[in-house]
Write a sequence for this structure.
């Protein structure tokens, strides 16, 4: 181990790795390339799916990050030192890098792009890697607010990065193929030349045959055996020349024969022609050729000549029969075709590179006529080589030639540059498919463009999938209406149009009234059905060119253009309210639902989409406050009221964590003994920065916002803990009553909350009394019966509050498993004033007793009321006459005194 040399080695290794990464990046020729539609599409889709305002595709070069495509950002490149993507590249991690809040990360909190435009708070980057696994770029989405990505969004981002890699491979294929095709063109030139040489050999052969005749006839005494013919053939011919006699032996030859074979004159003399060849098999072939030439007049063939030293040289050999002095001879010639062989091999090799390319390859001439397609092209298009050779490659578009992207390719061909396009092409069987096409000119060694090469990638499936993603990102799955994304987009477009043409845009915000109850009573499934019905009705009322959207939950919104004035809008709103309020069937049940609508107008109320939507929402709140099932235009007064409500809501949301709630207890007395038998808990809210807020003011808001559920839970815990504390102090045990609010009653998990409160406090459950209003119980009596039975299993006591106020529940009351009834305070109040109401109070007492329930009267203010209740056998009372609600300490003192209240 040499620890001291490690850092230097590591530095060197990373420097080498960086060098090869930069080399790999160069191979794609992507830096500073023209914008390309496909990269732009991917970028836009990444932003849409990840619901991010900005996305970009960046490539990290030596000193800079350069952006190939951007959505929602307008910078071409940044310094590498400012780049967050640089870290993604450096980590060489294949996973997506997510920085949920850059300001909380010391590596990024002071980066220029974090503290300045575009103020990156959230960053997610999927690396783009080469086939050798070098990270060269990143597909990123960024946001101005801290956040994260869902698992699905991460998966889509990764998949889009893979698409970019496939596009890059097309570019790299092109770069590699350009070289291959240029070499192939050069080799083809050599081959043509070699074939020309063979033609020349044959011509020379004819000449030599004639010359041999001439020689033999003019030099009457010449013997031809054993002579070197070169002296008679003063020629530049680079090949060998020979004469073979009837015995198959060399009778004459030129000097080249000895030079090529390495045999001396004497060795060549009378050597059989077949002795210049290697194997017996080959010798037999050559012998056959010689015999053919003697019999038929000529023969030619290719074979390896073997030299004296054993080297084999490929030769093209041709011979013709001649007669010399009445004797048959063969006059023959041969040329070395090693170079041709090599060229052919090279040609084959280049062809194989294109054949093996996974992407479809097409080579055309300068008039776009197809010269070559590889097997992948055949598989992709269904066109075999023979179908398409010589045809214009526009055959792939059939009649669909008006595609704007085709101009990119036409322009590239004209300018003899690279170009790319996303095209609708058609297979041989007529089926449409989507292609990414990248083309480039191919230059020969003299720099002249001879061909164009195109590489095609079938992206049909990807296009379909992207279409689905886009649909999902823009439309609501339940109702198929536009979602808030698309609505905002449409609203922005409508504003631009209205600005140009001096028109009005109407923005409406619709919220269903008391929709929660539908879910609670009939289940989520029925709720969904209601939402779908409302969506259909809204759509039916609004013109097709306008936009209706599901904004979220039970909220809808619409954007209307071309509406002439408020009167028309008001008329339409009335129609809308009526349409929504019509009864409809869900399963076997008839249902009704109403909605509240808020409206804002461009340009009167606001000039941008965010403001208009916010103000329509504000107006909708006002419509709710005006009693629901109505609409309201935005006005500044509306704004003030709603602002007050929103302020209150914000404070209420923090009240629990700020410990701003207390509980007070109103004592309950037994009418016979006069002793305290219970205490009714009451919630008090005193915000830290203001005076106490009236329960009437905040409880309704807590109900509407759903905050009542955690607040109610806290109250149950507090009441149990306080009551147990009294018992721990040795006081006589009493019941503690807790009112259950509507949302609490309907929320899942009330039983769990109660179990938890009882266990945590250690109080015996029988000292807990839950008070539920009769109205609430009767909203869905069957469901109430089930829930109350479940709650009773804990051992607690149940009281029906406000009995006698309205509902006639005689059939149900016995089935609720109650322990007590409380006579409605309004009835008690009327005792002494309205005899009829007093009689109703008396009936409630009899009814309770007939059901074996304890009956309590609340809100007792006067001695007269007390006397009446006592005379009619009411069991328990509370009210200002006998004692107000008290803080825990004072209740404790009161219990310590355990005084009887005079009940005379
Ligand atoms: N069935 C169903 N319910 C949903 C869906 N999305 C949200 N909700 C429910 O819609 C209800 C929205 O209730 P709110 O608008 O807050 O209250 P509300 O009962 O309509 O009362 P107001 O708006 O004050 O009239 C909540 O109970 C949500 O759980 C959904 O996709 N399907």
């Amino acid at each position: 181990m040499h620890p001291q040399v490690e850092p230097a080695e590591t530095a060197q290794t990373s420097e080498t790795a960086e060098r090869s990464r930069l080399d790999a990046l160069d191979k794609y020729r992507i830096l500073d390339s023209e914008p390309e539609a496909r990269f732009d599409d991917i970028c836009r889709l990444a932003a849409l799916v990840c619901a991010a305002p900005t996305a970009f595709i960046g490539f990290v070069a030596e000193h800079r990050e350069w952006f190939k495509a951007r959505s929602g950002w307008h910078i071409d490149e940044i310094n590498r030192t400012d780049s967050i993507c640089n870290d993604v590249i450096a980590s060489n991690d294949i996973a997506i890098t997510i920085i949920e809040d850059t300001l909380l990360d010391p590596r990024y909190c002071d980066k220029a792009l974090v503290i300045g435009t575009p103020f990156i708070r959230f960053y997610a980057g999927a690396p783009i890697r080469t086939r050798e696994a070098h990270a060269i770029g990143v597909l990123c989405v960024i946001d101005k607010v801290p956040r994260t990505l869902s698992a699905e969004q991460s998966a889509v981002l990764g998949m889009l990065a893979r698409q970019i890699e496939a596009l890059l491979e097309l570019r790299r294929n092109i770069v590699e193929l350009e070289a291959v095709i240029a070499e192939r063109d050069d080799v083809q030139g050599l081959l043509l030349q070699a074939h020309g040489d063979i033609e020349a050999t044959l011509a020379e052969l004819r000449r030599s045959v004639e010359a041999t005749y001439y020689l033999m006839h003019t030099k009457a005494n010449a013997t031809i055996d054993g002579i070197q013919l070169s002296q008679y053939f003063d020629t530049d011919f680079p090949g060998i020349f020979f004469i073979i006699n009837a015995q198959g032996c060399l009778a004459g030859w030129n000097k080249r024969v000895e030079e090529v074979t390495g045999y001396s004159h004497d060795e060549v003399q009378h050597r059989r022609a077949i002795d210049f060849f290697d194997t017996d098999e080959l010798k037999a072939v050559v012998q056959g050729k010689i015999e053919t030439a003697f019999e038929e007049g000529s023969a030619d063939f290719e074979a390896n000549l073997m030299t004296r030293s054993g080297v084999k040289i490929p030769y093209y050999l041709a011979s013709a029969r001649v007669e010399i002095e009445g004797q048959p001879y063969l006059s023959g010639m041969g040329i070395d075709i090693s170079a041709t062989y090599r060229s052919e091999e090279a040609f084959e090799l280049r062809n194989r590179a294109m054949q093996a390319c996974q992407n479809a390859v097409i080579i055309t001439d300068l008039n776009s006529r197809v010269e070559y397609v590889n097997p992948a092209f055949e598989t992709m298009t269904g066109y075999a080589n023979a179908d398409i050779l010589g045809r214009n490659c526009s055959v792939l578009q059939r009649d669909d030639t008006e595609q704007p992207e085709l101009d990119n390719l036409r322009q590239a061909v004209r300018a003899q540059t690279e170009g790319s396009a996303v095209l609708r092409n058609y297979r041989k069987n007529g089926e449409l498919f989507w292609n990414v096409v990248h083309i480039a000119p191919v230059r020969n060694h003299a720099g002249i463009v001879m061909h164009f090469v195109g590489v095609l990638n079938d992206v049909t499936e990807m296009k379909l999938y992207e279409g689905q993603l886009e649909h999902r990102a823009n439309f609501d799955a339940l109702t198929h209406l536009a979602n808030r994304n698309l609505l905002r987009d449409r609203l922005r477009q409508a504003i631009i149009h209205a600005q140009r043409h001096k028109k009005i845009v109407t923005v409406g915000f619709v919220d269903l009234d008391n929709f929660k109850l539908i879910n609670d009573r009939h289940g989520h499934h029925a709720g969904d059905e209601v939402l779908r019905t409302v969506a259909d009705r809204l759509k039916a009322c609004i013109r097709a060119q306008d936009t209706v959207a599901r904004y979220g939950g039970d909220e809808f919104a619409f954007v209307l253009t071309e509406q002439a004035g408020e009167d028309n809008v008001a008329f339409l709103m009335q129609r809308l309210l009526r349409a929504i309020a019509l009864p409809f069937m869900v399963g076997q049940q008839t249902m009704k639902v109403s909605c509240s609508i808020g409206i804002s107008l461009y340009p009167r109320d606001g000039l941008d989409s965010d403001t208009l939507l916010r103000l329509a929402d504000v107006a909708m709140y006002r419509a709710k406050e005006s009693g629901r099932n109505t609409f309201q235009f935005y006005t500044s007064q509306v704004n003030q009221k709603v602002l007050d409500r929103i302020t209150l809501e914000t404070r209420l949301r923090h009240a629990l964590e700020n410990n701003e709630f207390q509980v007070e207890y109103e004592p309950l007395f037994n009418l016979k003994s006069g002793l305290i038998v219970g205490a009714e808990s009451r919630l008090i809210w005193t915000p830290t920065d203001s005076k106490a807020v009236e329960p009437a003011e905040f409880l309704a808001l807590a109900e509407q916002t759903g905050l009542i559920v955690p607040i109610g839970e806290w109250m149950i815990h507090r009441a149990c803990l306080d009551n147990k504390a009294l018992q721990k102090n040795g006081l006589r045990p009493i019941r503690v009553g807790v009112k259950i609010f509507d949302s609490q009653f309907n929320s899942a998990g009330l039983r769990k909350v109660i179990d938890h409160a009882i266990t945590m406090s250690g109080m015996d459950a029988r000292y807990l009394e839950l008070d539920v209003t009769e109205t609430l119980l009767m909203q869905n009596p069957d469901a109430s019966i089930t829930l109350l039975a479940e709650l009773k299993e804990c051992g607690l006591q149940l009281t029906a509050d406000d009995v006698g106020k309205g509902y006639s529940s005689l059939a149900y009351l016995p089935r609720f498993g109650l322990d007590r009834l409380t006579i409605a305070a309004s009835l008690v109040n009327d005792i002494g004033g309205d005899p009829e109401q007093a009689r109703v109070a008396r009936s409630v007492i009899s009814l309770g007793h007939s059901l074996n329930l304890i009956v309590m009267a609340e809100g007792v203010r006067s001695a007269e009321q007390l006397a009446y209740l006592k005379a009619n056998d009411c069991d328990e009372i509370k009210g200002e006459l006998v004692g107000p609600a008290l803080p825990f300490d004072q209740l404790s003192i009161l219990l310590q005194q355990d005084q009887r209240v005079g009940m005379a």
Notes: The chain has five domains: 17-149, 198-341, 361-465, 476-634, 653-890. The chain has a mean pLDDT of 86. Residues 478, 511-517, 519, 524, 527-528, 531, 553-554, 624, 704 surround guanosine-5'-triphosphate (CB under 6 Å).
